């Protein structure tokens, strides 16, 4: 993922087309997710989950073949200066940014791990639960398609603050107002808490990690957020699920989104942090 994101971002920033084109490239991942859920879900329902390793292997083989067929553009090569990465990491803005990513994925770990169980406990069947997930992914596709209208008008840190605020509201709604109409609204908010956050974070990352540091920056963000944040979020959510009421898992997520907003609020104005 870091290598793929780095190559994509490098090409788009080189052409000054990140705001316009990144979302429309990224949405194909979401479309692929929907297609695979529909296809594999039906297949596993009929033939059994034992086919999962086979299906996964086939998809990865196809992906590898397609990757080798990609045309490799000529890129400007810049040798990384010794200690350059440490200079970036000592920037307090970078640390606050990474901390905000940690808390945002920490918050979403509860959603990814326990949302289906939460809905099942509320009485929804498997098909209805699948529709809730599909709605969330569809919402992110819509944002990615119209991403340029947002990122071309607002600074990425502003978009991140909005995403964290939407996250607080979303998880409070899931925890305390689990009515069908409210849950539908909460899933539509996935456009803000995932898609807007991902696009804005990817753009903001380029403020500090450029040239030969791009891939390392992407890897660092993935490690801190999805690695540490996702793992710890899942562990804490699991403990809360067993020890308290299920809704408290999403209360924790709302609090984590609030902490993410506080972290990103620590960023200095651009003219000071440059």
Quick description:
With 274 residues, the chain is mainly alpha-helical. The protein has 13 helices and no strands. The chain has a single domain (2-273), classed as MFS general substrate transporter like domains (Growth Hormone, Chain: A, Up-down Bundle).
- The chain-level mean pLDDT equals 85
The end-to-end span amounts to 27 Å
Please, what is the oligomeric state?
A: single chain
Number of helices: 13
Rg over CA atoms, rounded to whole Å, is 20 Å
Structural category? mainly alpha
CATH class: Mainly Alpha
Strand content: under 5%
The biggest beta sheet, please? none
Count of individual domains: 1
Throw out a few tags for this protein.
single chain; 274 residues; mainly alpha; Growth Hormone, Chain: A; 80% helix; globular
Topology record:
Layout: H1 2-14, H2 18-47, H3 52-69, H4 84-89, H5 92-121, H6 126-145, H7 147-151, H8 156-176, H9 180-188, H10 190-205, H11 214-243, H12 247-264, H13 270-273
Helix pairs in contact: 1-11, 2-6, 5-11, 5-12, 6-9, 6-10, 8-9, 8-10, 8-12, 11-12
